[in-house]
Amino acid sequence: MEHKSGKEIEILLVEDSAGDVRLTIEALKEAKVHNKLNVVPDGVEAMDYLNRKNAYKDASYPDLILLDLNLPRKDGREVLAEIKGDPKLKHIPVVVLTTSRSEEDVLKAYDLHANCYITKPVDFRQFMSIVKSIENFWLSVVKLPVRK
What we know:
Blueprint: E1 9-14, H1 18-31, E2 35-40, H2 43-50, E3 64-67, H3 76-84, E4 94-98, H4 103-111, E5 116-119, H5 124-141
Parallel strand pairs: 1-2, 1-3, 3-4, 4-5
Helix pairs in contact: 1-5, 2-3
């Protein structure tokens, strides 16, 4: 699937677990969606990427952000607050994909305007299924804003 502008779908995965990054890459490959997945390992790099700073000067804005909450250096809650508080970033859908089942984390994420909150399953097949369903919904069903 391509974005309305004719470009491939750009996804920013903010995830510090190498295993979860590999699983996400595999699930997106299996889903056969024309996407470009960019991965950053922590919240500081996520904000550098989104603000096109340091190593990410030539980065383009993603169509979708998959955000873990428990990150080194700057956690996902802070990243979410910064994204949704920034007029040039707040339109980008943010899917919180985390191991936390805490009601407090769920509520806080939605208070910070997360577009959805998904708890990562431990089981490999369930994880693959969830990533595919995220891809199917956000990249096939939902109309995303055209990125500049």
